Amino acid sequence: MELVEQYKIDGFNLDNANTWGQLLEADMEELERIDTEEKDIYSLEEKFYGDLVRKGKYTGYWHTE
Predict the structure, then answer these.
(1) Residues 5-57: pLDDT tens digits?
(2) Do 61 and 17 form a contact (C-beta atoms < 8 A)?
(3) Is residue 25 within 8 Å of 59, Cβ to Cβ?
């Protein structure tokens, strides 16, 4: 409330979600797989950046199942 009063804010604008970038859901089940020697198949970097995504699965404002 302090910022509202300090800067005389009387509203805000939410942009149309269709203009936001598309976010794809990482396939964590696949990214967390281990091989037969109990070693990670994917590197920590690949897991962090979600290099594998689920086909047709989006996340964000318009989350779908």
Answers:
(1) 899 888 877 777 666 666 778 888 888 999 999 999 999 898 888 888 777 65
(2) yes
(3) yes
Kindly report the number of other CB atoms within 10 A of residue 31's CB atom: 19
| Residue 20 contacts residue 45 (beta carbons within 8 Å) | no
CA 4 to chain centre: 30
Q: How far is CA 39 from the centre of its chain?
A: 26
The two tokens of residue 47 are: 């897991």
pLDDT of residue 40: 92
Quote the tokens at residue 23. 């976010």
Q: What angle do CA 8, 12, 15 make, to 5 degrees?
A: 155
CA nearest to 50, candidates 29, 19, 21: 29
